[in-house]
Amino acid sequence: MDFIIIHTIIFMLPFGYILFLYLPLYSMCMKESDRSQSSNLKIALENKKKVYSSEVIREICLEEGADDVGFVEITREALGNVKKEVQILYPKTKTIISFCKRTNPENIQSVSRPLANEEFHKTYDDLSIIARKIVRRLNRDGIRGVSCHPTFPMNMNDWAGKIWQISHKPIAEQAGIGKTGINRMILHPKFGSFILLDSILIDVEVDRYDNPIDYNPCVNCMLCVSVCPVGALDVKKGLDFNACMTHNYRDFMGGFEDWIENMVSSNNIEEFRKKSSDDENISMWQSLSFGPQYKAAYCYSVCPAGTDLYGIYKGDRKEWNEQIVKPLKNKKEPIYVGKDTYAAEYAKRNPSKEIRYVKNILRPNSMFSFLTGIRVAFERKHASGINLTVHFDYNGRENGQATIIIKDGTIEITEGLIEKPDLVINVDVDSWLKIVNKEVNNELMKEFFTIGKIKIQGNLADLGKFQNCFIGQ
Fold it and tell me: Is 353 helix (H, G, I), strand (E, B) or coil?
């Protein structure tokens, strides 16, 4: 009997040893499982009320890599037209999750644009990955949703108008992520300009929604205004879209189209080289191969907003200026501008910059793209001193009305007819777009007016002034 007991003990010893080793690990796994079930249970309990816990979802977002998170209900009036954008992308949306990822300030502050651009691209990649991970986590708890794209690709079928399908900035403002600064970036209370944004659309309500922060982190230092190489920022007049896009987005969209047209319209290689230098051609190759390269984004680089950086800036403003602002101002580089523009005049003031005259090609294919893209074609210099209110009444394959108000170098486009007009333009959409895109000769133009495809009420001299306010082709 003793022999059997001894042998049984000896036989069981290895199993006891194994159990001794793995019991703590088993316990840890059970605790982790309990935590996971606890997390799910919080959501499930709320689900009985058809409302989910915002805190649980917020924790999921932070665990997956977001640096800040906010929630906005789809019914919020302050969203304006963003609500329509969201419902087109995901009609079941009840809540928008806005989140941001911090960028590394030193990379973007560097005089090296390759360093800055790589930081932008990699952070955008991070945002996309984070959004998809969050959605997968939420799917496990019965929440369905769409992870949006933080930047490109966009809907190029609507070029040259509104190509972005969701406006992350107004969503971020409503979600309390930050406020828009003079540089038109969302300024986070802690991270300042150094964030990028994304949004997730989900089909459930949450128990608590966020509101806009009650102050603006912008410190009114005006460094963004002073560093812009094309003078695109104006505190009173806002952003000069034409100046900004023509230079900073030279390798994108209208700039790329201009480069292509320079190529195909040249009779030989010598003629093409006069239009486009070798470094510009190679820059286009690089953008096609490794992601579009922003030419500046200096307004982002120099911003000291946010608690992370403001103390450094305030502690030694001279050093901030010497190490960050001046190197960007004094950098020898090409600046892309349109001829006879305010941007060209402004850029000439800086002897460190080489002026290159280009076009930002904009050829709208619909009235919608015309009305949304016209802001980019607006030239502040040509519109100086002009005050016009223009009513557009259009028909044909699109029907609608819009008001364009030009007032001393600024432009405002509104859906519908407001205020007393100086000009009333009634147009057939296809006929009007042919005129805008310079696809008609004088004879066809006369025919449009004769058969009533184009009708003008008002002083024709005002029509000339209106047309002169825009550049593009």
Answer: strand
